[in-house]
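Researcher: Please predict.
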Amino acid sequence: MNKISVVIISYNEERCISNAIESVLDLCKEIILIDSGSTDATLEIAMQYELVKIRKSAFENYANQRNKGIEAASCPWILMLDADEVVSAELANHIRTTVLESGVSYQVKRRNYIWGKWLDNATGKDFQVRIFENHVNLRYHRPVHEQLSGLTRLVRLKGHLSHYPKISTTEIIEKQNKYTSLECESKDFKNTSYFVLFFKPFYTFISILLIKGAWRDGLRGLCWSFIVLTYEIFKSIKIIEKRNNWK
């Protein structure tokens, strides 16, 4: 079996953490849980599993949390998993039977289960690098929508990650506010034209709804398209606010 450390970052994940952990128990040698101060039963649940090693770390940004998990891992391979994700049986079997190659990182398809339905059209072809070598050159950057740097060759695995985000209007607003602020702080948008700032949100909306085919997901797909629209609008307004030093 491949020697894999699973890394999970968490904050108040009692709803889903056990499902995430149980989906990888037979795939790894250890599970590194980087927790940023959960106040619910997340840690109590995680401590019930012998493979789980808990590390408490104050939240700075998502990339740093993931990197701390990598640095705490002892195995030569990393499987990065979100607390609200589950490894499908097909993906687990492919990981189990695949001989992981040095110099190769592995992409996994993620399916998003939102409002009681798989939104395969609205959320697009969501492929993410989730299995990679525990190497000093492979680290996450960007504080939100984080990505791995140092990637070379990519291979896609069969199966998928099932993503079960907790969606409510209140949580969407809170998350959009947090994510757009992190994104605006981390990037230099001074050369982005006002034309782009004002019209990109609407282009993104039309792209998701019509080109990606979110309309095929019915009312849920339409609502998801509006969520992405509002995210881009919030981001544009915050960029303008920052650029003009509005207080």
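Model: The mean pLDDT is 93.
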